[in-house]
Write a structure and sequence with these properties.
The complex is a heterodimer of chains A (567) and B (190). Chain A has one domain (3-566): Cytochrome-c3 Hydrogenase, chain B (Orthogonal Bundle). The longest helix of chain A has 32 residues, at 237-268. Chain A is globular, with a radius of gyration of 23 Å. Chain A is built from 14 helices and 17 strands. In chain A, β4 (218-219) and β5 form a beta hairpin. Chain A is of the alpha+beta class and 567 residues long. In chain A, 39% of the residues lie in helices and 15% in strands. With 190 residues, chain B is of the alpha/beta class. Chain B has a single domain (3-160), classed as Rossmann fold, CATH 3.40.50.1450. Helix content of chain B is 27%, strand content 19%. In chain B, the strands form 2 sheets. Chain B has a 5-stranded mixed beta sheet with strand order 3-1-4-6-5. A two-stranded antiparallel ribbon of chain B has the order 2-7. Chain B is globular, with a radius of gyration of 18 Å. The chains are: A alpha+beta (567), B alpha/beta (190).
Chain lengths: 567, 190
């Protein structure tokens, strides 16, 4: 019998992501992804001064503030063909890396680890055995017996009260939870330690951005950080030193705890390399420019089509004409007036709400398409593109992950091919983090060298032409390829469209009925117990969903704000 | 002892900007000692944990759902909040006040003195700016926060320029900078 499951976190006023699946014979047969809140935030920018667009754009979304700010200034600079100084590139890069590391750490531990880690088994662990196992996996100092025992006691205390609080919604004891109690303890210890490191990563953003969330240092034309090595009041050697030690402090956690934990998870749950493949077209945009003119990048961009992961069409830089021509947004199944697809610069955002209609309109998310095809974006696309073009750092860390997984006794070797899966997305995010932690130190060095060479410039003033101009600003954000598309006329925005990573991934069907990445990745996903759809959450979480960036209304009446509805 | 005052909400969605607005009013109206921190955190979701770790006392200002009329101000003490049931998390955006508090506590770094000052929102439509009822609630909430800070032994001094409205730049049509080049007489529709 077909059962329909709706996972719908509904608040009184608005909702975010709703997933509907039909389950038959223990696996998903049909799937719909719906965003239940209107994403029309861009309309607020029409008529505004392009130099302040980023201040609004970073308020689109409370978690991804920084990424929208940077994409916005890049879009305006592209429209004006305005170069920015090398220092400004490096400072922006360091902010973006700090943000991404913070975001990836929070995703792995605080957002999704408890889909795989059953904390209720922790009390029975022999902490000495757990510590000796952990020490065999890595040199991370947080694996000591004392540390693990302290965490075990915290969990015991929590369970003894019978008040699991936030952990009460976990699917504890679910048959799909299969880590050993020792592994559960090790991973949960890192969950608590991760709190310090995500904060350190966020401090990088704060030091350079002036404030976090909502950085204050950007400008169309560069950054507003004053550099003067002889002044205490500006960015000087002291500040550079503080920044360097923060970045150095992040590397061991990312490379010896997070990266290792992701490999352990992958070797313990090998079947999850067989689920969640979904859309096999991948898009990544180039990022972390190494020069003022943005001709060379530390993260390569490209397009992979139909799962041919060895052939890539490179996106060499942000001027790539093919990218500009290829992107469109289809609204056939979205709550906007009309049907079919339009390029972003001509995009319209006229709401037309109907009910949730399986065969009609059912979401506020538009369906972005690349040459008419849905694309998967995110760390996996980033890694697959880098791997295919032979990017040295991607190769190094991806191969290191594969070796580690086999050394943990994985029966089947993991390959780039296998990364196209639910587990592959978790692993790719950890590979990317390890790579970014190396790149953080590299871009710190680029900045320090350039300043010591005597270059203190951070800003080139923009000139606005009288004629209309168009621009696109790209960023390879934590959740994937982000692009802001702007049209500027007479010194004001006349159109503004943000094609965000979650729009690509949470895309609904298009006019040809082709499913988006969330939807198609869920087909065939196992569901042992439809009242506890843990397996669905695993695949959905693997994308790190980030829905419209939302009203933040708490319900003190204590109503269940999310429901898992089984029909 | 230190106090962290946190405003939550999206400033581009009408009355949802209540929390950040209260923070700006407090910033503009009072001279606060160094131990009292004012933060406009927008809608940080799980990112809230960072700002709770290490604080001894926290006052959160946010919109709340409930029965009543827009602009009603409600105060919830920490114990009231902790009794609420939790729910499965799908995205990092889901409101995370309770979750962030529990995680910070479990890590042994959470504040023990917590309260939430909330108002019932009227309009949450796209657009910056508060409805008149909720704008009036801002002053009520700011006064509650001020008293709470003072009760914890801090001197809170009113500024001379306290009657000036905060710089709520996102609601101003004029923009922050002088125009880059002459605009047409009729600006594009907002």
């Amino acid at each position: 019998m077909t059962k329909r499951i709706t996972i719908d976190p509904v608040t009184r006023i608005e909702g975010h992501l709703r997933i509907d699946v039909e389950v038959d014979g223990g696996s998903v047969q049909k799937a719909w992804a719906s965003c239940t809140m209107w994403r029309g935030l861009e309309t607020i920018l029409r008529g505004r001064d392009p130099r302040e667009g980023w201040l609004f754009a970073q308020r689109f979304c409370g978690v991804c503030t920084t990424v929208h700010a940077v994409a916005s200034v890049r879009a305006v600079e592209d429209a004006l063909q305005l170069e920015i100084p090398a220092n400004a590139q490096y400072i922006r890069n360091l902010i973006l890396i700090g943000h991404a590391l913070h975001d990836h750490i929070v995703h792995f531990y605080h957002l999704s680890a408890l889909d795989w880690v059953d904390i209720t088994t922790v009390p029975q662990v022999d902490s000495a055995r757990a510590a000796s196992a952990a020490e065999g996996f890595s040199s991370w100092p947080g694996n000591s017996r004392r540390e693990l025992e302290a965490v075990q006691n915290k969990v015991k205390g929590l369970l003894a009260t019978g008040q699991l609080g936030i952990f009460s919604h976990g699917y504890w004891g679910h048959p799909a939870m299969r880590l050993s109690p020792e592994m559960n303890l090790i991973l949960f210890a890192h969950y608590l330690q991760a709190l310090d490191f995500q904060r350190k990563a966020n401090q990088v953003v704060g030091i350079l951005g002036g404030k976090t969330p909502h950085i204050q240092n950007l400008a169309v034309g560069g950054v507003m950080n004053a550099i003067n090595l002889n002044s205490l009041a500006t960015f000087n050697m002291d500040r550079l030193g503080v920044l360097q030690s923060l970045l150095q402090g992040l590397v061991p956690f990312v490379q010896e705890a997070y990266f290792v934990d992701a490999c352990l998870l992958a070797s313990s749950y090998p079947e999850w390399f067989n689920y969640g493949k979904g859309v096999t077209n991948y898009l990544a945009v180039p990022d972390l420019p190494m020069d003022a003119k943005a001709t060379r990048f530390d993260l390569p961009g490209g397009v992979i089509q139909n799962g041919s992961i060895h052939s890539v069409r490179s996106i060499k830089d942000w001027k790539d004409e093919a990218f500009r021509q290829a992107v469109s947004e289809d609204i056939t199944h979205s709550w906007y007036e009309g049907n079919g697809a339009l390029p972003p610069w001509k995009g319209k955002t006229d709401p037309y709400y109907t009910d949730f209609r399986d065969d009609g309109k059912y979401t506020w998310v538009k369906a972005p398409r690349y040459e008419g095809a849905p694309m998967q974006v995110g760390p996996l696309s980033n890694i697959l593109v880098g791997y295919a073009v032979g990017h040295p750092s991607t190769r190094k860390w991806t191969d290191a992950a594969f070796e580690r997984i086999s050394s943990y006794g994985g029966k089947e070797p993991v390959s780039a091919e296998k990364l196209q899966s639910t587990m592959g997305r978790y692993l790719a995010r950890a590979i990317r983090s390890a790579m970014l932690s190396d790149l953080a130190l590299k871009h710190w060095q680029l900045l320090a060298d350039n300043i010591l060479k005597g270059d203190a410039s951070t800003y080139n003033p923009p000139q606005f032409p009288a004629h209309e101009c168009e621009g696109v600003g790209m960023h390879e954000a934590p959740r994937g390829a982000l692009s802001h598309w702007v049209v500027i006329a007479k010194g004001a925005f006349s159109n503004y469209q943000a094609v965000v990573p979650t729009t690509w991934n949470a895309s609904p069907r298009d006019e040809h009925g082709i499913l988006g990445p969330y939807e198609s990745s869920l087909l065939g996903n196992p569901v042992v117990d439809p009242s506890k759809p843990l397996e669905i959450l695993r695949t959905v979480h693997s994308f790190d969903p980030c829905m419209a960036c939302a009203c933040h209304t708490l319900d003190p009446a204590g109503r269940m704000l999310a429901t898992v509805q089984v029909l | 002892m230190s106090v962290t005052i946190i405003g939550l909400g999206n400033v581009l969605l009408g009355d949802d900007g209540f929390g950040p607005f209260v923070v700006e009013v407090l910033r503009r109206s009072y001279i606060l000692p160094a131990e009292v921190e004012l933060l406009d955190l927008g809608t940080p979701g799980l990112g809230l944990i960072s700002y709770l770790c290490g604080s001894e006392a926290v006052v959160i200002v946010d919109t709340v759902a409930g029965v009543g009329i827009p602009g009603d101000v409600r105060v919830y003490e920490g114990a009231d909040l902790e009794r609420l049931p939790s729910h499965p998390r799908v995205s990092p955006h889901d409101p995370a006040v309770l979750e962030a508090l529990s995680v910070a506590r479990l890590a042994g770094k959470g504040p023990h003195d917590v309260c939430l000052v909330g108002t019932l929102p009227g309009s949450l439509e796209l657009g910056a700016g508060l409805s008149p009822q909720v704008r009036a609630a801002v002053d009520v909430a700011a006064e509650i926060v001020r008293r709470r800070v003072q009760e914890r032994g801090f001197e809170v001094q009113r500024r001379e320029a306290a009657h000036v409205e905060p710089d709520w730049w996102m609601a101003s049509k004029a923009g922050r900078f002088p125009l880059p080049c002459p605009r047409s007489k009729k600006p594009a529709e907002l």
